[in-house]
Amino acid sequence: MTQQNTAFEERFGGIPAIWLRFNQFEAAVIPSVGANLVAFRDTEQGFRYLREPDLEHMDEFMAAPAVYGIPILSPPNRYEDGRFPWNGEVYQLPINEPATGNHLHGFLHDAEWKVEGYGSDELESYVVLSQEVKDGHEFYKYLPFTFTVTLRYSLSSLGLQQQLNVRNNGKERMPNLFAFHTAISVPFAPESQASDYTAKVTIGQRRELNERSLPTGQFQPLTPEEEQLKGEGVSPFFAAMDNHYTAQPQNGRNYMELTDNRTGDKLVYDVGTSYKHWMIWNNNMGGDFFCPEPQMNLVNAPNVQGIPAEDIGLIGLEPGELFEQTSRLYPIKPQK
User: Fold this and answer.
1) How many domains does the chain have?
2) 0.70 surpassed by pTM
3) Which domain of life is it from (predicted)?
């Protein structure tokens, strides 16, 4: 039986959330923790496509929200010694990864977001969330730029759509660096095993990282399994991965595709071509999720010399300018 299309407020593991339902799909967003979309499900088949927080242990989610659901990162990934050169200034970010001496993941993934509105009609169920960065905001304390980030999530017959908007409200050019630390559940089907799954990602070249997980400027040859990753697909746990790749769209699309070879079901994560880099992390082959992370900029991009800013995604927004990118998660059912 098809459930009613609706959007409503109800708790997720005790934390206030906005729930969306449309046909067989269901999703939940937690505004107070980074506007993290912590669940995307097919309720008819019992599929759970994202790594969801354990409802009985939400403290684990609160302690590490970046490894569940779809967290937004800005500025994403690592910055050497916390240094962030921009427009002739050098800003200092806090060192929050002592093991490497770097700053990691920015200031939005655990911030409280405002719910602008939610609703439902015969075409979709949606929620709009915003983050206004200005004086007094944690982000502004270290990177003093004023801007508004808006996330719109919607469920429709086409699956889950994510729309990211960034508007520069200030008087100077600002850095526009974003990523999503998307945690995909493996398996997503309740009767399947992780060994039933293969993943394909539109990666290009693999960047060499040093002992501080920062790019050296060199590329490394792809292994045979990495060639399979960009080709016919391979287990997302073929090796321990915390790897940095260029994105190389195929057939005009920049995406991850996860296939359950037992059922024939596929999950597609089409991220859009503004994300010129992928990070792929599988929690040291932990076995129940992996993170294909679309990222606009090269890790540590502001500190990289000699490569055009456009190539490494070190891009900015002029005053009043608006950036927009749409991504989508959707299933493909097996051919009968």
Assistant:
1) 1
2) yes
3) Bacteria
